[in-house]
Structures are given as C-alpha cells and as structure tokens.
Design a protein that fits this description.
It is a single chain. By secondary structure, the protein is mainly alpha-helical. It folds into 2 domains: 74 residues; 59 residues, no CATH class. Helices cover 61% and strands 7% of the residues. The chain is built from 7 helices and 3 strands; from the N terminus they run ααααββαβαα. It has a 3-stranded mixed beta sheet with strand order 1-2-3. α1 packs parallel to α4, α2 packs across α3 and α3 runs antiparallel to α4. The longest helix has 22 residues. The termini are far apart.
C-alpha cells in the first residue's frame, strides 16, 4: 500500500467519523440534498482513485472528500443527532442505544455515559428471535403494530375503570 493511499484513507476515515458519529446521510439529504449528492459523488471518486489512481489522484480526491465531510458536518451542526436512538427503562434506569453506525457508539458514551449499552438493529432482531419471552411480544406486535409495552403500577387507575 502506498504512503499516499494509507495517509488519505486515514484522513478520510477520520473526516467521515465526524459525520457518522452523529448523523446519517439521510439527515444530510434532508438539510442539504445537493451537498449530500456531491459528497456521495466525491466519496465514489475517492474510492475509485484508491483502486486505480496514482498518489496525486488519491491526494486530490482524498483532500476533496475531507472537505466534503467537513462541509456536511458544518451544515448539520445544529441538527440533533440521528445516528442512534436512546431508550430507557424508567423502573430500572437501564439505558440502551440502538444504531447501525458503530461510529456513533463513542458519541453515545460521551453524551449519555458509559453505562448505556450499544446494540445494532441486527442484534435487537437476534435477541427478539432467540429469547423465548420476547417471541410473545413479537407476535403481539406483528398483529397489532401500534401496540406498546407499558408499565402498570398498582396505584394507577385502570383504563377500563
């Protein structure tokens, strides 16, 4: 691997991390569709340069891709993070973050603490499919998509009353 290739892959990866630790490309499309299109195109040019280009082409497209990521981060600066969802059980305080961009895991720990458990949607699906108690919940939610699990406390009046 050339020195330029190694250098620019690391630079682009770091630039991508600044975006992907907080936001998805869908968020960028909502905020600035043209910037999202141009960044996507530039990422493709950089990828192609890494495969077939020389050091100068890799450097040219690597730098441009880093600038694109930087522009995307600036455009999304005030937007709420959308690369993950946070859930909490009020009875126990157990918190979980669900996301498919592993780059967001460190962001979650930074904002929400080290006790938050990071899981991917695929891991949630595996747990739902493999733990017997969750299979019943899955069946109910398949038949009643809007159903929600709620906590009932003895001191609360019944909705039927």
């Amino acid at each position: 691997m050339s020195t330029a290739l190694s250098h620019w892959r690391r630079q682009v990866s770091d630039a991508a991390l600044a975006l992907e630790s907080r936001w998805t490309m869908n968020a960028l499309r909502r905020v600035d569709a043209e910037l999202a299109r141009r960044l996507h195109e530039q990422i493709g040019l950089f990828d192609q340069a890494c495969i077939t280009g020389g050091d100068d082409e890799i450097a040219l497209h690597g730098a441009a891709t880093c600038r694109g990521y930087s522009a995307a981060v600036a455009a999304l600066g005030n937007e709420p993070d959308d690369a993950y969802l946070i859930g909490e059980d009020p009875a126990t305080g157990f918190r979980v973050a669900i996301g498919d961009q592993r780059a967001a895991a460190d962001r979650v720990r930074e904002l929400h603490g080290s006790s938050v458990v990071w899981v991917t949607p695929d891991e949630v699906a595996k747990v739902m499919a493999s733990v017997e108690q969750f299979k019943a919940i899955a069946v109910v939610k398949q038949f009643f998509p809007g159903a929600a699990m709620i906590d009932r406390f003895p001191s609360e009046p019944s909705e039927a009353a």
